[in-house]
Amino acid sequence: MEQKLKIMAAVDLSDYSPITVRYGVWLAKKMDGELLLVNVINQRDLDMVQRTMVGFESFSFSDYLTEQVQDREAEMKDLFKAVSPGTVKCRYLVQTGTPYLELLSAIESEKPSLMVVGTKGRSNLA
Fold first, then answer.
1. Which residue, among 79, 82, 101, 83, has the nearest Cα to 92 in the 3D structure?
2. Residues 43, 25: Cα–Cα separation, whole Å
3. Average pLDDT over the chain, rounded to whole?
4. What are the DSSP calls for 53-96, one per residue?
5. Is residue 51 within 8 Å of 22, Cβ to Cβ?
6. Domain ranges (residues) in the chain
7. What CA dihedral angle connects 88, 89, 93 and 99, to 10 degrees?
8. Quick one: fold of 6-116?
9. Is-contact 33 27, C-beta < 8 A?
């Protein structure tokens, strides 16, 4: 049995993400593969939220993190639906940590055939 190609796309949910997702979908269609959209919640941002919310008894960090993961997954699903009318199989992965390390970890665990990344990111510095 022939193994399907897996294309992993790093999605930071910036204004440039639709381009990355569109290209990932195009590649997956052309290669009869599946798409994996990966987003990383930067640990630096999570640490800042934890420090800021110290003393607020009503704040639950675990609830906040769960909500962030759900929101990001929903955003990735919306991005995918906007560029692909269901012609490609797609999975979604949200991880927390240092972005480049988490992307390397996802590559190690998911074993994609190739990875799509954008030329600009959230900071718009490229």
1. 79
2. 28
3. 91
4. TTT-TT--HHHHHHHHHHHHHHHHHHHHHHH-SS-S-EEEEEEE
5. no
6. 6-116
7. -30
8. Rossmann fold (3.40.50)
9. yes
